Fold each of these.
Amino acid sequence: MNWFPENVSTYGADIDALFYLIYYIVGFWFLLTEGALLYFVLRYRRRPGQRAEYVRGDTATQVAWVLVPAVIVLILDLGIDAAGARVWETIKGEMPETEIHVRVTAKQFNWDMTYPGPDGKFDTEDDRTIENMLHVPVNQPVRATLRATDVIHSFFLPHVRLKQDILPGREIDVWFTVTKPGEYEIACAELCGFGHYTMQGWLNAHSEADYEAWVQESWPAA
Ligand SMILES: [Cu+2]
């Protein structure tokens, strides 16, 4: 069962495990309840001599039919929450230390990737902005500061298992570490206007040496 794009991120497997946990729990109950529904529909269909019964739902047994499943749902929900909390903490909790910092500006309808350059500061002379192409090294955490100039967008890296809404007027930091060199799609996952579907970018994950070469090429003076 391989429904997801290839995972190339350090925390991708945790996200996938969470997806499958929810998938199997919900899938089991879906089949069980739909099966029961189908069975009851056939078993208690209109037949000569079979009279309908008026159920008030006020005896202990009848109340239990509602309360017991409610408690089971609650317990499973708390179990999913507990499993999710650990993953949430990894991804949204403390950001790992890193040298690689990019500012991603979403606008109708593309992505501006801004690098601070050798001085490590944004809004200076040596900044460099590239449209729709995010260059990163593998095996190093990348910190991206997300901004929007117009409407709400969503920064979606399917192969990295990262999706974060971007709100105008706010800066939101995310991080990820790519484990395999390659080019991976970046999509906008929030309907943001007529050109939403064209809002595509690429995550270009370089090997350490290739990334160094790209930095040299981009800022030759340094
Ligand atoms: Cu968008």
Amino acid sequence: MGMEKGKGKRKGGGRVLIVDDDPLVRGVLSDIFYNVGGYKTDVAADGFDGIEKIKNNEYDIVFADMAMPRLNGMDFLREIKKINPSMPVVITTGIPSIDMAVNAIKEGAQDFITKPFRIDTVISIADRITGEKKLLNKLAVKDDYEASVGELKAELFKKLQEIGILQSISTELDGLCDNKEIFERIVAMASKLFMVKEASFGAIENGHLKIKGSIGTMVKDISIANSIFENVIKKKTFCLASLGEVNPHNGTLLTSPFLSVPLTMNNEVFGILNLSNKADGTAFTDDEIRFALTFAEKAAMRIENNALYEVFYTNLMNTLKSLVISIEARDPYTKHHSERVSLYSLQIADVINLGAEDKDAIKFGGYLHDIGKIGVRDTVLVKPGMLTPEETTEIRLHPVIGYNILEPLRFFPNEMDIIRHHHERFDGSGYPDGLACDKIPLIARIAAVADTYDAMTSSRPYRNAMCHDAAIKELKRCSSSQLEDEIVLAFLQTPAGKGGARLSLERTTH
Ligand SMILES: [Fe+2]
């Protein structure tokens, strides 16, 4: 039984099992449950330990970490459900996402919470779950049967509706990366879920609610001053306008209540969802308002994820692009080389009909292919003359250096094939891994042809640029040894291979 703590201070607590590989988290949660919630607690350091404890003890709730070694939270959840299908499990996670929440709920989790934990959230979830459990137990007592069934039905209904909201938000918004689409979808879903004839979503910008999507109403941007929105922003919660007040959508008098709920990011209201004109003509119930707040919260989470991802991705792309520019600035002979390799590779991809995903990888990967040169000394990189064997070894490190720069980012898995393998040779005599034939990723074989052609037709300090015809002759000579002949043949059919495309990009004429 081990580490169980004693009786809690509050009356009516149950027994909680905390499963987390981090002793600090176990300690914090244990303290919260015991000292604040009045629960008895027990801890397990991983899923297997947790399973053993569940087999041998009685618990009211299990709080399990999502990311654990040996048995992760989802597998642990499945195992628990095999032993005791009605055991309430709450999943804890450091990375909140609606997908994770929905998956956990689909697998039978009761709820999920994100780290760092808020004491009141942890306790209220535990209290709610033990409350529901008591309600279920009451069902067994005949006297209270009718009342209990009624209460239980109402609880179940609320729960189902909330889970429904979570699931529909996830499925509806999945795969949408464009904010405009997300806003429009949020409005459409809200009008369906809350059965209103009028709905709008607006973002707060310069004292106005900039309408990003609306249904059932032709609504333009609305000034926030002295409107219902001012209150929503100030109070950071919903506001209701009643019959006879002004409809913010169109300035007429309201004939049915108008509900505004905030969408927040970092505790600041950034958008407002408006619902009005319920199809059945009734007022909004407390439950509906609560659902509207949950809906807005989940939608805000999705928008925030999207915004963070976009900002992060754009920043990252820009940083990498400036790195490439800085490398090319060190070596004026290679100015625009990366752009041209990207362009020629894309032209080859067109000829051989590659799919969109490969083309994306080629476009950015072609641009980044020499990014590892950032780790090569200037004296070697721009040396006028032939390189010594040591210098050759140093410059040949650049594919691996580039790979090592990008690998931890985990953002460009396909692009990395080009970065690492653009100097592999079809006959296996290239570097860094000596791969041959189709062991070399296709997009790297393509980039190799583009890179070779551009290198030959660019000037170097120690030699002049080859003319197009001579370079093509050389490419054909290297077919099947250094380069794949089919890719060379494809290159010959591209605008660049026909000698035309170079005009479109500036070249240095040293
Ligand atoms: Fe290279």
Amino acid sequence: MPMYDFKCKKCGKEFLLARTLKQQESGSPFCPSCKSKSVDKVFTGFMAKTSRKS
Ligand SMILES: [Zn+2]
């Protein structure tokens, strides 16, 4: 699942969310601290859940 790093433009709070593409399309996240929707999204990559064993 893609992890997104967000940073609030209002209070500067940084928070990490795992969101699907559908969630991304359905609405923007809001800051858990001040509930502002003025957040910057920073894509951080995918969760390394590789349980491959050879
Ligand atoms: Zn905030």
